[in-house]
Amino acid sequence: MYRTQPQPLRSMANTISSANHAPAPAFPNESMNVMKYASPDPKEKINWLSSMPFFGFHALAVAALFIGVDRASLLLCSVLYFVRMFFITAGYHRYFSHRSFKTGRTMQFLLALGGTTAVQKGPLWWAAYHRKHHIYADTERDIHSPQRGFWWSHVGWILCDKYKTVDYKGVRDLAKYPELRFLDRQHWLGPAVLLIACALVGGYRGVLFGFFLSTVLLWHATFAVNSIAHLFGRRRYETSDTSRNSLLVALVTNGEGWHNNHHYYPTSARQGFFWWEIDLSYYMLYGLSTIGLVHDVRTPPQRILLGHSPQVARRTLPSRGVAR
Ligand SMILES: [Zn+2]
Ligand SMILES: [Zn+2]
Predict the structure, then answer these.
(1) Number of structural domains, the chain?
(2) What is the 137 CA–ligand 1 centroid distance (Å)?
C-alpha cells in the first residue's frame, strides 16, 4: 500500500501536507528557515549584474500589461506559452532528462530547438541539472530544494554563478550528438529567431506579449515545479523527497504538477497516472505516437496503478508503448 497515516508535523512543508496522504520526510537540517535561508557559499549569491537580462525580461513583461491587452496579443502570448511549455515538459524534461520515450534524430533535434525558444538554456544544461535533482532530491546536495528556501528553489539558484556551466558527464548519452552540443552552446539562437518572428507578426505588441510576457509566465510556471510542487499539494507515494501532486501546477505546466507521481516513477512519460490527473503533454505525446513521430512512450506499470486504486486504474487512459 502507498498511503500512510500522517506523522507529527515538523516543517512548513509538512504543515501543508494533507491528512490521509503520505507525510513528507523531515528536512535534513531542521534549523533551516525555508523562507530566509542564505547560502554561506559566495558562489551561491545572486549575481545582480549578470542577472540584469532576467530582470529586464520582467520589466518588459510588466510593460506589456500597461499598453493594454487585446485579443490578438493574448492569443499570441497563450499559443507561445503552451507550445513552448510542451517543448520544455515533453522535450527537455520527459525526453532529454528521463528518456521516457523514443524518437528519431530529426525529431530529437526539433525537440531541442523548440526547447531553446523557452529561454531556459540548452537541453544538455537543463537535463544535467535535472538528473542531479532526482539523484539528490531534497538532500543537501539537491541544487534547488525548497529546503534551502522557497526563493532559492524557485529562482535563486538560476541567478547565481555556480550553476551557469554544465558538466557533460551526467549527460553523455546526449552529448554524443554534435547538433545537441551546438544548440546547448548557442542556446540564444532559438529565442533570437522567435523574437524577430514576434516582431514580424505583431510589431511591438507581438514582442511584448508574444515574447516577453509569455516567456516570463513560462519561466515561473516551470520554476513552480521546483518550488511549489515540493511544498504544496498531496503526496500519494511515500518517496524519500518532499515532492507533491498539485492540480494547479499541473494545469499551468501541461501536466508537470503530478510531481509526487513523477518522483516515484520518473521514467514514465505520463505523469498524470489516473484519468482525472490532467496531463496535456502526455496527451500530445500519445497523439504523436499514433502518427509514428515518437514511440515506446513509457507509462506507469499496472502494479503501481493497481496498488493505488484497482477500480479506477481500469478506467484510466489507454497506453501506447511500453510500461516498465
Ligand atoms: Zn522534484
Ligand atoms: Zn524529472
Answers:
(1) 1
(2) 6
